[in-house]
Specification:
The protein is of the alpha/beta class and 534 residues long. It has a six-stranded parallel beta barrel. It has a four-stranded antiparallel beta sheet with strand order 10-14-19-18, with no helix packed on it. α5 (407-443) packs antiparallel against α6. The longest helix is centred in the C-terminal third of the chain and has 37 residues, at 407-443. It is elongated, with a radius of gyration of 49 Å. The mean pLDDT is 89.
Length: 534
């Protein structure tokens, strides 16, 4: 019985076809070929053979004799074109079978074969032409390729701040590391853009070699999640800070916090704090660390030898033990339970229960009340009044109080006096040098180096004369202003001890004996002590 089909294998498609045709004793036009398994090769080494099924076509035999059939098989055959299309229809391949005495394959033959296989898109005319020219028989050649669909891109969110903020110590210019500046807080101002959203794209449709459309999947949109003090732009594509503060991603929501809360101490674990809102510290502020903020600072623990600079109030629930290195600066008020061995300056009032060995400057009042209400040691200055229960100590501790004086103006005045002393000393040295060189010049001509010294000394004298005149005039003006300031008063509810020096305007008073319940003021250019007014 004649075989109607056969399954055969080969290293290549062409080898498998040739083996099958030979075994069936037929030609290519009389069979249908189905690829059962495609072969594979790596670096020209075959790792998997082609496996094909070759089946004879159902052709009604002519009433010819066997001899006639054999004669017909010996007749000439034209070149053949076999087209294969991949299962996903994204590629089409051509295999050319050479003619046996018949006509060669033409471009038209290939076109007709492609049409017959429904291949209409992505046809590579150059590959077809080269194969025909080169008589590239028995090789599987790609002659058409579809276009993959390009799926749309999902929308994205780009955060303009670090959503995974980590400790990043400051690198100084000399390459050393400042471990007190850890950059943990990301400050933003109202109006700053915090995040940008991109819209999804639709994608681009694809097409197979048989012209079948491949739809593209549109991208998925994303939406902002926003927390407090954050708004969207009118087009919905930006998140914008609606307040000054610290930006964070909390529960996937972009949030601006107007309060920076430190649950522990300000120390090596936090580094220095720089914040454009309010700062609350639940613990202590360790020696050597700093807090700078545009709002209030509130500390529940102890401030050691640290620095706090606030554009708002400074509120210390316990106090400051400054160890002569603690510094407080406030554009408003400073309020503390106690203040020891520190410097503090406030544009408003300073209030405490105990002030010991501090230098305080207030453009308002210094008010020391509470159970103790004690001021002892140090230097206290206020534009207005200084009030306390007890001023000084029974040990006659040196304590200096100044009222009715703008601390900044007084500081400027004192600085100018020091500068004037320095300028005067320099002028004295220059005059001595000029006098000596002038006398030498009268005796004999000065050598070049001495002449140069004389010239420079004369120039220096001219500069010093102008500078001394300028500083002198400013000192006169400031002195007149300071003399006119005399509204400040000092109030002692209990006692003022000896050792206290009092300045009101440009008037001074040294306390040599205890003063009980008194108010001290300046009247008609003199300091007076009157009964306690408050």
């Amino acid at each position: 019985m004649k075989k109607e089909y056969i399954i055969t294998e080969g290293k290549t498609y062409e080898e498998a076809v040739e083996k099958g045709l030979k075994e069936l004793n037929t030609t290519l036009e009389n069979v249908d070929i189905e690829v059962l398994e495609e072969g594979k090769s790596i670096f020209h080494f075959t790792t998997k053979h082609y496996k094909i099924q070759i089946k004879k076509k159902n052709i009604q035999e002519d009433p010819l004799t066997k001899d006639a059939l054999r004669d017909r098989e010996k007749e000439c055959t034209d070149g053949q074109v076999v087209i294969e299309v991949s299962k996903d229809e994204m590629k089409a391949f051509m295999t050319m079978i050479p003619p046996e005495g018949g006509k060669m394959i033409t471009k038209e033959d290939v076109t007709n074969a492609l049409i017959a296989a429904d291949v209409v898109y992505g046809i590579d005319s150059m590959a077809i032409e080269n194969a025909i020219i080169q008589n590239n028989f028995h090789h599987k050649i790609e002659v058409a390729r579809g276009k993959e669909a390009i799926h749309g891109l999902d929308g994205t969110i780009q955060y303009l701040f670090d959503i995974h903020a980590k400790i990043q110590p400051e690198i100084l210019e000399d390459g050393s590391v400042n471990f007190k500046e850890l950059n943990l807080i990301q400050n933003v101002k109202k109006g700053d853009v915090l995040a940008i959203r991109t819209l999804p794209t639709d994608g681009i449709e694809g097409i197979t070699v048989r012209g079948r459309a491949l739809p593209a999947k549109p991208g998925k949109p994303v939406h902002f999640k926003r927390g407090k003090n954050v708004v969207e732009s009118p087009d919905g594509l930006q998140l914008i800070a609606d307040a000054n503060g610290q930006v964070k991603l909390l529960d996937d929501k972009v949030t601006v916090l107007q309060v920076c809360e430190i649950n522990g101490d300000v120390d090596n674990s936090t580094g220095n704090i720089h914040f454009n809102g309010k700062v609350i510290v639940k613990g202590n502020v360790a020696t050597g660390f700093e807090i700078h903020c545009d709002g209030d600072v509130e500390v529940y623990g102890v401030v050691e030898g640290a620095m706090i600079h606030a554009e708002g109030n400074i509120i210390l629930h316990k106090g400051i033990q400054g160890n002569n290195s603690g510094r407080l600066f406030s554009r408003q008020d400073i309020i503390a339970r106690y203040m020891e061995n520190c410097y503090a300056k406030a544009y408003g009032n300073i209030q405490a229960e105990v002030v010991m060995h501090c230098k305080l400057e207030s453009k308002g009042q210094v008010i020391v009340t509470g159970k103790k209400g004690l001021i002892v040691g140090g230097e206290i200055r206020a534009n207005q009044d200084i009030s306390a229960k007890i001023i000084g100590s029974s040990m006659a501790t040196a304590t200096k109080l100044e009222v009715g004086i703008d601390p900044e103006m007084k500081e400027r005045y004192d600085h100018l006096k020091e500068e004037m002393d320095h300028l005067t000393k320099n002028m004295d040295h220059v005059n001595k040098a000029i006098d000596l060189l002038t006398k030498m010049a009268k005796i004999a001509a000065l050598p070049p180096d001495k002449e140069e010294i004389l010239r420079k000394s004369l120039n220096t004298k001219q500069y010093l004369e102008v500078k001394i005149e300028s500083v002198s005039q400013e000192l006169v003006n400031l002195k007149q202003i300071l003399q006119s300031l005399s509204n400040g008063r000092i109030h002692a509810e209990n006692v003022i001890y000896p050792g206290v020096k009092i300045s009101i305007g440009n008037s001074f008073y040294y306390v040599r004996d205890e003063i009980q319940r008194a108010t001290i003021l300046r009247e008609d250019g003199e300091i007076k002590i009157i009964p306690y007014l408050k």
